[in-house]
Amino acid sequence: MYTSAQFLPEEAISTAEPSGHGKVAAWVYSEAFVPEDEVLLRARERASELGCPAVLPGVGAVLRVLAAATNAHAVVEVGTGAGVAALWLLRGMPLDGQLTTIDREVEHQRAARTAFAEDRVAPQRTRIIPGRPGDVLPRLADGAYDLVLVASDPLGYPEYVNEALRLLRPGGVLAVDGALLRDRVADPARRDELTTVVREVGRTLRNDERVLPAMLPSGDGLLLAVRR
Ligand SMILES: C[S@@+](CC[C@H](N)C(=O)[O-])C[C@H]1O[C@@H](n2cnc3c(N)ncnc32)[C@H](O)[C@@H]1O
C-alpha cells in the first residue's frame, strides 16, 4: 500500500514534523490534500524507477481542476514522462477531449501507455508523439488548444512557452511545472544558467500583456498564465 506522502521530498517532510515550520507543514498538507489512487501511485512508482520526476500530487490536483474548469477538449503536454500529470489532466478533461503529449524518451511513453491502459483511458483520448518538443510544437495549430502543460527540460522552457502562447485559444491556460526549481528561483543569489533561464520565464510572462500570470507554490512551483 503506497501513499502520496511517500513521494514527497524527504527534507520537506522532516521539517514539517510538529515542531517544524508552519508554512512547510501547510505545503505538505496541501500536497496530500487530494490523495492519489493506486493507478496514479503505480504510475508514480514507474516514473521513479525510470528516474523521471513526475508532478507532485498538489500540482496534479490543480491540473485536474484547470482541465475541468476550462472544459479542456484539446490539451498539450510537453514532457510525457511516465504519465502521472497526463492521468490527472485526463481525469479533468471531458471524455471526448484529446491529450497530445510529447517526449523524446520512448521508454517513458511506454510507461505512460501502461498507466493509461490501467486507468482504462480510451485510445482516442491520447495522441502520444515521440520527439523533441522543439520539432513537434511548431506543427500544432495556432489557437487550437485549451490548456498547455510544460514539464520537460527547463532549458527548453523559453521556447516551449513561446510556442504554448501561440497554441492557446483566448481564455486558454498555460501551466509551467518546476517554476521554482527547488526554491532556487526565489533565491536572488542563485545565478547559474538553469536558475536564470527558469526565473526569466516567470519574469517574461509577468511582463507579457497577452497573459494574466500567477505563481502557485504547489509542488516545485506551478506558474500559470491565462491567455487573453
Ligand atoms: C519531468 S518529466 C515529465 C513528467 C510528466 N509531465 C509527469 O508529471 O508525469 C520530463 C520529461 O521530459 C523529457 N525530456 C527531457 N528533455 C527533453 C528534451 N530535450 N526533449 C524532449 N523531452 C525531454 C524526459 O524524457 C522526461 O520524460
Automatic annotation (TrEMBL):
Pfam families attached to this UniProt entry: Methyltransf_3 (PF01596)
Keywords recorded for this protein, A-Z: Methyltransferase, S-adenosyl-L-methionine, Transferase
EC number: 2.1.1.-
A single BP term in Gene Ontology: methylation
EC primary class: transferase
GO molecular function: methyltransferase activity
InterPro entries referenced in this protein's UniProt entry, alphabetically: Cation-dep_OMT, SAM-dependent_MTases_sf, SAM_O-MeTrfase
Presence of keyword Methyltransferase: yes
Protein name as it appears in the record: O-methyltransferase
